[in-house]
Amino acid sequence: MSRKAPLRGAKGGGPAAPLGLHPRNRHQGSYDFDALLRVEPGLARHLVTTPRGERSIDFARPESVRALNAALLHQQYGVRRWELPDGYLCPPVPGRADYVHCLADLLAADLGGAPPQGSAVRVLDIGVGANLVYPLIGHAEYGWHFVGSDIDNSALEIARRTLGHNPGFAAAIELRHQSQRNSMFKGVLAEGERFAASLCNPPFHASAAEAAEGSRRKWRNLGRVSEVRGKRPALNFGGQSNELWCSGGEAGFLRRMIEESAQIPECIGWFTSLVAKAEHLAALRARLERSAVREVREIPMAQGAKRSRLLAWSFLDAGQRAALCGAPRGDA
């Protein structure tokens, strides 16, 4: 098994540069609220003034986070009428964009360094959710085509409503119901179907109680301690039970994903997932070693103080992976 250096933030030769958003990420610096208000005037009622006299939103309020996401997706990516009901996971758009750009770099490494563009690049989003954020950003930035799967039919119906308002995206994004709750790929992939990559943001927690405690920590970090005493805290980024926790938590989910990926080694060029907890990496590396993968990559990511990483593995060689991006086999 080959374990190449990370594509970003690699150590060696001297001090590593501070890790921030990907250079191609559109969300560098502060939010441009004037531009956001021009496309989504309703965001105005969610604005607050910080102690430093700057405009922002209250990130502890789920409705404000949703309004900001709708404005960002409209202003930056041309997504109209993005809506998300109460309770569904509302991920931060800048962090999701970083994953897409890091995935583009991963694919580019097999293609001479240029990120692949266009519909020949097919990506599978495991657990696409009602928010549909990865396919929306991936198609807007690179023209990729997506299949998004989810076990929650209601989430898929919400995502379909967004696609109904955005026909250009609808032509590039297919949604599929995963009827096998304990499977990631089985029951979703058609016979002979191939993808350049898969992506996933797995449930972090191992139980509902653990997810609730994670929410309390978020509120404490947001300075809202008094509001969580004696009652269940609101989830500022929302989330249904299947989005927040599963048996074995993040580590268990990814162990199952690795095991299942070994059963379909030629179907996906790069299997990838976010890994929120660094302490899970050693066990996941050991499991990948036993699965006879050809290559493993660990790509560090950061948004503000939050640190994460993208774990990627492949059973194919560079030429085979390049072919899944539409390149002739001899061009890799």
UniProtKB/TrEMBL annotation:
Catalyzed reaction equations: adenosine(1618) in 23S rRNA + S-adenosyl-L-methionine = N(6)-methyladenosine(1618) in 23S rRNA + S-adenosyl-L-homocysteine + H(+)
- Transmembrane annotation, as ranges: none
EC number, UniProt record: 2.1.1.181
**Which terms are listed as keywords in the entry?**
Cytoplasm, Methyltransferase, rRNA processing, S-adenosyl-L-methionine, Transferase
UniProt GO MF annotations: 23S rRNA (adenine(1618)-N(6))-methyltransferase activity
Show the Gene3D superfamilies listed in the entry. Vaccinia Virus protein VP39
Disordered as annotated region, ranges: 1-25
Cellular compartments annotated: Cytoplasm
Recorded hits in InterPro entries, A to Z, give: METTL16/RlmF, rRNA_lsu_MeTfrase_F, SAM-dependent_MTases_sf
Similarity remark: Belongs to the methyltransferase superfamily. METTL16/RlmF family.
State its role: Specifically methylates the adenine in position 1618 of 23S rRNA.
Name the chain's protein. Answer: Ribosomal RNA large subunit methyltransferase F
